[in-house]
Specification:
The complex is a heterodimer.
Chain A: H1 11-28, E1 32-37, E2 44-50, E3 64-66, E4 78-83, E5 104-105
Parallel strand pairs in A: 2-4
Antiparallel strand pairs in A: 1-2, 1-5, 3-4
Chain B: H1 3-23, H2 28-46, H3 62-70, H4 74-79, H5 85-103, H6 107-110, E1 121-122, E2 129-130, H7 145-160
Antiparallel strand pairs in B: 1-2
Helix pairs in contact in B: 1-2, 1-7, 2-3, 3-5, 5-7
Classes of the chains: A alpha+beta, B mainly alpha.
């Protein structure tokens, strides 16, 4: 069922990629204390709380977007934002990402 | 052309212009100006989704934050030919202080009180007015290993995102 270029791949597959990216990001940056996943059927959307990160200054969450990379087991596009602890559940989310109530916190997987 | 592609294309062009200025031995401030602009546009390209019909939001600190996100990306790591995740993290982290200095070259950061490659400023210590064309920008020494490393990273990133 996996497709690329933002086509519908199913939420379970997106969640798998979200967990993979969350694990990679936590390994790269131990200061990430929380990872929020915003479910979407086309794109992996993560907001990560990083204790070393200063606030963005404009109250907005600014994700960086990456293309699908099937070679890296990431066949869907993704958007990842780093925020400061002060912005946790307060900063304004990008259009279309829903609200903080929609977020699912991805726990660390050892 | 998408906003993302346009920003990344302009980043490549800015970075190429920096190289031309370097080879022509034009005043260093101009080389730094193009480096700062290339880094800002590279980050803003990544701040824009491929499918977005809107330009990226104006934001500061995009370059450093972009590198901090990239250091946890297996796709970027592979494209830059790193087999070890730890080595890639250490490589990116070693460049963050210099990347932050480059980011702060933007006049919006420096204002007219601090060194920047574009506008004259007044030194707070001596009170004298300084022109960028005559300033040595010592902390950005062109031949330093760190600057070479940052230029290599920029070049590699601009190559793999094209």
């Amino acid at each position: 069922m996996t497709q690329t270029n933002g086509n519908h791949v199913g939420l379970a597959e997106i969640e798998r990629q979200a967990r993979l990216l969350a694990k990679e990001n936590r390994q790269a940056e131990p200061a990430i204390t929380k990872v929020y996943w915003f479910p979407d059927e086309h794109e992996v959307r993560l907001v990560e709380v990083d204790t070393t990160m200063p606030p963005s200054g404009d109250g907005l969450v600014h994700p960086f977007f990456f293309r699908p990379s099937p070679q890296d087991d990431l066949p869907s596009p993704s958007g990842v934002a780093l925020i400061s602890p002060e912005e946790d559940r307060r900063a304004e989310l990008p259009e279309g990402w829903g609200s903080w109530e929609d977020a699912r916190e991805l726990e660390s997987e050892g | 052309m998408s906003w993302r592609s346009a920003f990344l294309l302009q980043a490549r062009s800015d970075f190429y212009a920096r190289g031309v200025l370097n080879r022509q031995r034009v005043e260093y401030c101009h080389q730094l100006h193009y480096l700062q602009m290339a880094s800002e546009k590279l980050a803003k390209g990544f701040l824009t989704a491929e499918s977005s019909s809107q330009p990226p939001l104006l934001t500061h600190a995009a370059f450093v934050r972009c590198l901090q996100v990239m250091k946890g990306r297996p796709d970027v790591r592979r494209l830059l030919n790193f087999s070890s995740g730890r080595a890639f993290v250490e490589y990116v982290e070693s460049l963050l202080p210099l990347a932050e200095q480059v980011q702060r070259l933007a006049p919006s950061y420096a204002g007219l009180r601090g060194p920047n490659p574009e506008y004259p400023w007044q030194s707070t210590a001596q009170g004298s007015v300084v022109a960028p064309a005559e300033f040595d920008f010592r902390q950005f020494e062109a031949r330093s290993p760190q600057m070479n490393k940052l230029l290599r990273l920029m070049s590699d990133l601009l190559r793999v995102v094209s």
